[in-house]
Amino acid sequence: MPIYEFYSPDNNKLYQFLAPSISYRDKTPRCPDNAAFRMERRMSRFAIVGRAKEESADDPFAGMDETKMEAFMAEMERDMGSLDDANPDPKQLGRFMRKMTDMMGDKTPESLQEMVRRLEAGEDPEKLEEQFGGMDGDGDQGAAADALWQTMKVKLKSMQNVPQRDPKLYAFGEYVAD
Description:
Elements: E1 3-8, E2 13-18, E3 40-42, H1 66-81, H2 90-104, H3 110-120, H4 125-132, H5 139-160, E4 164-171
Parallel strand pairs: 2-4
Antiparallel strand pairs: 1-2, 1-3
Helix pairs in contact: 1-2, 1-5, 2-3
């Protein structure tokens, strides 16, 4: 019996339906959460398992498990919300940057590692920005930090649109009109 996957853009959710036969292949079920929601057929993850994602060699997060990345990005989003942009606490900023660099592992530039150590020790972020070039791309260290920051922002934005997966398997026949 085939399993079909459908996406509802109205609630950003994926559903799976078990069909008793392939005769359901051209039908679209009602949304289990709200019959008024639209449903679109999707290619299931099972069907695309063999297709490898293209990853950039420059991406410090290349090869990272998607589930781990989702949890990491959610944590980073919470942490970023608690940072005071006008007057950042150096230790808090250091802890935030430590999490980023720990995820990167050996891909972290040495200059960025040094900046994080000094922020964690409570050094003035403005003084470090003068010395290291900051996160604005000035100098080699700044360019490395800026590249990391830009990658983080892209990853975070892409994670915000990931649909929620409904864990239940629905009987297709119960959600289509005969």
